Amino acid sequence: MSEPEDPLLAGPAANTRHESEDQRMDRNWNELLQEMRVLQTGVQIIGGFLLTLPFQQRFGTLTELQKWWFLLLVVLATMTTGLMLVPVSLHRRLFQHHVKYRLVAAGDMVVKAVVACVSLLIAGCAGLIFSVAVGPEAGLAAGGSILVALAALVLLYPLLSWSPRRSKAEPER
Predict the structure, then answer these.
(1) How far apart are the first and last CA of the chain?
(2) Do residues 80 and 121 touch, judged by C-beta distance below 8 A?
(3) Is the pLDDT of residue 1 over 80?
(4) Dihedral of CA 106/152/38/21: which sign?
């Protein structure tokens, strides 16, 4: 008995590639891994930036709020890095069990969670920088504005740019 097909994984043009279910799952898994590689670079850069801050001379001048803000960002960066390990761990656990569809579905959920965490990290770091450079109100305003903009980019734009009617007419690349 096979798993019900997820329309988000298959897409309307899934049959035009002339690939088996296994080939499609392998392709989907490889695409997820490529997305994780892109995200990993961003998380590493942000994490590296955060790790250098306590060693800067101005770090001692941060307010209590800014220090807690910084520590929250360190925890978020650390947990995001840990979350990015989940697909690797799943792959190791499910390797050769012929359940690639589970791996792809779980990987899809993890990538979505990582995108949300990276968005929070970006907005939080920008807010912290504005808070230190200009003041706490500016930090909250900048961080909040950037978070809203990122939410629009990563949540709304993909929803608005995809329509089933248009996808059927577009050739697969």
Answers:
(1) 31
(2) yes
(3) no
(4) positive
Spatial separation of the C-alpha atoms in residues 44 and 80, rounded to whole Å: 10
120 within 8 A of 143, measured Cβ to Cβ: no
Residues in the chain: 173
Regarding pTM above 0.90, the answer is no
- pLDDT of 145 reads 98
pLDDT digits (tens, 9 = 90+) for 108-127: 999 999 999 999 999 999 99
Cα–Cα dist 78/41, whole Å = 14
**Structure-token pair, residue 119:** 């968005």
Tokens standing for residue 152: 């629009």
Token pair belonging to 56: 């800067």
Q: How far is it, in rounded angstroms, from Cα 69 to Cα 60?
A: 14
Count of CB atoms within 10 A of residue 99's CB? 16
Please tell me what DSSP assigns to residue 98.
S
Residue 70 has pLDDT above 50, yes or no: yes
